[in-house]
């Protein structure tokens, strides 16, 4: 049996349902409520498929390509850091990308499903928490179920975005986006340092 609470907390941190909300609000502010619900459902399905794929095949693919998990963690941290910078310094978190999205499906996939929900950190967590040489198939299934609970929470928040938009307005969404950018940048830096530490066998104190 896995420790359910720590796994839930871990996935909540890396998927970050609250942090996804300003991305969703900014990405769908030009859409109707019906379109927002459709985008939310499509983003939920896309991110679920991606993360479940990493649970099933992520470690196999990385091993076959001789990519250490530590290197994947550093790469994921760098991507997440660059994404966080667009939140802090851009027009708002995903607005430049939104202008490139021509359809509802494209908006659902990018930037909402990836890299907001199925972030590099979430992909990494899916791999690390289901390592084949550490966890049984039943434990991996339990971890997948915990992950799906967090994804469902994310879906509920996205479906309630119309109410939240009315409460905070576009200015509030912009403020939240930039604050979350700093938090994501910090999380990305932590991932990079942890990956470097694991790769070179350094202690936490040595990189802190």
From TrEMBL:
Main location: membrane
TM spans (from-to): 6-26, 38-61, 67-89, 109-129, 141-167, 179-202
Topology in the lipid bilayer: Multi-pass membrane protein
Pfam families given in the database record: MarC (PF01914)
Domain of life: Bacteria
Signal peptide limits: none
KW Lipid metabolism (keyword) present: no
Keyword presence, Methyltransferase: no
Intracellular or extracellular location(s): Cell membrane
Record keywords: Cell membrane, Membrane, Transmembrane, Transmembrane helix
NCBIfam families: NAAT family transporter
Family per record: Belongs to the UPF0056 (MarC) family.
Protein name stated in the entry: UPF0056 membrane protein
